[in-house]
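Cross-posting from the modeling subforum.

Setting up a comparison between two proteins and wanted a second pair of eyes on the formatting. Protein 1 (sequence, then structure tokens):
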Amino acid sequence: MHLVYSTAVICLAMGVGLRAGVSVPLKALSAAVLITAILLLVTNFTDNQNPRLYLTNSCYGLMSAIIALMLTRASQQQRVDRAILILITLTAVQFYVRPYVAIGVSGPMTTEQYHDSPFYALLLVTVALLATSLAMALVAACVSDQLRRLATESSRDHLTGLKTRRAFENDAIEMLEKAYAENESLSVIVADIDHFKRVNDEWGHQIGDCAIASFGSLLRRMVRASDRVGRIGGEEFCILVWQCELEGAGRLAERIRATFAQSPVEEGGDDLLLTASFGVAQWEPGEGYGKLFARADRALYAAKDAGRDRVCSSPRQGGGASIVDIATGRTAA
């Protein structure tokens, strides 16, 4: 039975460790099982149950403690994760406390005496309660993981892996509130792939999808972890640039524009080069996301009207867009 129980504990460790993304100390767990098994063989030559009681409970308590220590190294812990950690820790504690209390009160016992004692009944009750609670916590963790996975999939664009429009706008509202609370700067970049309808008509929708995926991948590589990127339309994208004023956001947009213009679309051959136009605006205190996006979108259309493949900025609310010359970097009203 010792090997059966120990195998179950190791399977538990592998399951919760895999879910938490931490390495499972299989060597330490296996060593505890093997050493205990050898010592249990020695105790078969005596009627005294105390050594077996000490060994088995100490082994399971040690294994539970190892699992609990393993879970403390998890990088992210939700409420259900903390519940699992607490239950495994309680399991480890009761394995250590209960046998010492039993032996301290009753003294040496044979196997039959121990099975007839109230401490054995208490063992069955506590193990059953903890095992049931742990099982319920693990089921809750599985359900939570599935719900979180579905939520993540629904908020991600399947073609680019970027945020969908709704998820991006939710992030935008949160970032605007954070910028207001912390008095930080925030800018938005709206980008649109030029002549995209022509790409679909002349090269096919598969190449068009490749162009969108390539542009999305480029955006992910060129922004920081603190920024947010989303695909908000067919070939339209938006970037929230945290702690960045208009000039810095304009330089970022220009770097993205230049890199994309020099990057052939995959599966389209080296001769398929596309361009993109950009509109940039800096958030002003008291301004909502709708107005901020509208200013950046007007700047984007100004870039389209000026010949595409360029960056335009909207320096103030109610103001016109200033075109940034892609060759000289100079702006013109």
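Protein 2 (same layout):
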Amino acid sequence: MEPFILLQGVKHFYKERLALDIPELQIEKGSITGLAGPNGSGKSTLLRILALAEQCTSGTLLVEGTPVWAYAGKASRRITMLPQEPYLLRRTVYDNIAYGLRLRNKGGDLKAAVGEGLALVGLDPSFAARRWHELSGGEAQRVALAARLVLRPSCLLLDEPTASVDVKSGLLIQQAILHAREQWGTTLVIASHNRSWLHDICDHLIFLYNGRRLECCLDNFLPGPWSPAETGLWQASLSDGQALYAGKPSRPDSNGVLPPSSLRLMNGTLREGERLLRCTVIAIYIDKYLHAPSLQVNCGGQPLVVSSPLDEDELDACRPGREVNLCYRPENVIWLD
């Protein structure tokens, strides 16, 4: 089946700095794709290129098999993006939501369409008469989303849609986004730091770091600095006096990842080459990809996820709030730099 969007050999530079390097990326029609990664990893740049709001320096972007370019062609009217900071016209809510429909010469009952858009994001029809400066941050974000939903886009791109809003607005935004996929088959691409939400709703998760797609996840992201330790290892200090150990990094401020599957609960004694971490269990959840329980723990201020198999006795010992010991091998740390 032909992907809805296909990127091939895409690179993007800001002056001489490489901001994005994606050899290939496929986004299937009707899917929900999540983009995860730290600030500056390239998520927003990738979204702007997908939205045809920015032309990549080199490479090809195809929509349903047809090459497309930024700011041109019918494809730009089928794909729309909601930025993290909503931009509203200095007009009423009604005019903001109706603007895109008028621009596309959409006929029909504009009043009904605006009312439907407001309902989708949980706002009363009376909001249509309000002006842009009378809205809270959460209300403004919901109005901006409504303006995109009334277009019934083939693809909706969202950059941190719930990052700067209150809890109620965040939940309503999440529901409206999923409605678009369920009712219209809209393809969704969502960049968010809300990893649990992405994990719950996405068909695919893409991890970015320094503009590149990673083959590993970023659940256990280990920031520097690192300093030499014994026997050729390097260590990063934790807030409770413990240390994380790894092989030699390329530089002291390198960042690493410890795969969740490489951590295990200590059952008996340490095996040769293993290191110990004392942790507090934060939560237990079912991993939708592994179809098995996973743990969220805190080790001296460092959050970690454990996805190695757990038997019934181990699960019973891992109730939230309890102290557990984890084992890992320093050589399993993957350097990102």
